[in-house]
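Milestone M4 deliverable, item 7.
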Amino acid sequence: LHRVDRRQRQMCIRDRMLYLGLGAIVFVPIFKTITHLPPYVGMMLSLAVVATFAEIYSNSKFSIITRSCH
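Output delivered:
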């Protein structure tokens, strides 16, 4: 039961991230038209929003571990 709930939550988050990313792509020309700034400014803003939500939804911890190869 716990595994099903976790899988369902992951699918929900995956769908949200997909729609957020697609919305960010559609947002760029709208942002450009309204602000008259170059498109890369809108892309950087969109990337920042998507990355922020990805960090919020992410439940994994990243660590850099150096390993010696023998």
